[in-house]
Amino acid sequence: MSNQSKTTKVGDASGRGTVAGYKVNFPARMRSYTESEIEAVVNVMRNAEVQTQGNYMKQFEADFKAYSGANYAFAVDNATSALRLAAIMCRIGPGDEVIAPGYTFCASAIPFGMTGATIVWADIDPKTWVVDPKSIESKITPKTKVLLVVHLLGMPVNMPAILAIAEKHNLRVVEDCAQAPGASINGKKVGSFGDFGCFSFHGAKNITTLGEGGMLTVRSAEDAALTPGLRHNGVRPFTGERQRYWVPAMSNVDIDLEDVWPNNFSIGEAQCALGSELLKTLDHNNDIIIAQATKLRAALSGIPEITFAHIPDGYRHIFHQFVLHFDGSAFGKNRNDLLDFLTEEAAVRAIVQYHPLFRYPLFQKLGAEQHNTPVLDDWWDNSFSLPWWIGMSDETLEYLADSVKAGVAALKAK
């Protein structure tokens, strides 16, 4: 494959998946399924009486509640639906403001924009690279109703600081934990701090239920009581005694929040059975990927132009991706120059995750292009991700480190 075709052939829009010509690709999945996980799905196919809203869902919710330390847990079809439910239950609309990080996946913000509320972009912390509580507090106005925080790339946000701000200003807190299941602060897992926690089991995550899936964790009993109806078309049993079980019909359909139509965000039983099985090894797999990151960071520690996110004491950062920042300004080079070397000379398919959201046409066209995020503006243009998955060999990690070292040295020499 020529250098030109290597840099222009992108494959999947996410940058994932095998593309010919690369020695190290960026995989579409973080790990393969084990035989016990496959059997859990097959067992549902053979034996489950219902395909959705059944006992496997209830078990998965109970298992996730126990694992996460949340008060309540509700399985849904994906994390965007979890975020949508959280946005609905925050009871926001036109005239309200939601403060959100400028740097995250688009699905974090879209459900809140759908309510008609105004999105106000917060900056990132210069050390941890996730949303900065100080930036959030500086943007609070009388219109602010919700703080949306994202534990991006597996790094927990400073939740004690966020909760103190929320209590001071009487605000709701939504945690986007899509990339951070199992991450924690001093032993307390993300998703158990705020009013809502939203988790993803997409194929790119460290726990994936057949490509899609999600979980909404809820703190209050009031919000938990609203969730089942909002999740499943307002369906619920008729109350009271019935002389005939079919009168007036098998199930009732009602409203949970005034003027709010319910949705169908249900997840299948096979996915739930798989989810319960995956939870058994989630911490172990997180340990594997943390160990990988520790090795790779150590191997690259002698290159002053390459830096990593600072991990505060007591934080369990689960490294959803391995993100680096390159500063070649001293010799007139930038991230794109280094990625040219990695892709063309080392055949390493490094990627750039995504734009700050306010740079995307979607948010610009919908009126959310205004921002004041100097740290993010300075940092993002020189950040990138190396290929990453659970269970990488030492040989692959060494090759990635050697390739980055060679690339930096080559750029210095030009």
Write the layout of secondary structure elements.
Layout (H helix, E strand, L loop, with lengths): L2 H6 L26 H13 L7 H14 L3 E5 L2 H11 L7 E5 L4 H8 L4 E5 L10 H6 L5 E7 L8 H11 L2 E5 L7 E2 L2 E2 L6 E5 L13 E5 L2 H11 L3 E2 L15 E2 L15 H11 L2 H18 L6 E2 L7 E2 L5 E5 L8 H10 L16 H5 L8 H7 L2 E4 L7 H20 L1
Parallel strand pairs: 2-3, 2-4, 4-5, 5-8
Antiparallel strand pairs: 1-9, 6-7, 6-13, 8-9, 10-11, 12-14, 14-15
Helix pairs in contact: 2-9, 3-9, 4-5, 10-14, 11-14
Descriptive overview:
The chain has 14 helices and 15 strands. The chain is α/β, with parallel strands linked by helices and 414 residues long. The protein folds into 2 domains: 3-31 and 282-413, Alpha-Beta Complex (Aspartate Aminotransferase, domain 1); 35-278, 3-Layer(aba) Sandwich (Aspartate Aminotransferase, domain 2). α5 links the parallel β2 and β3 (118-122). The chain is globular.
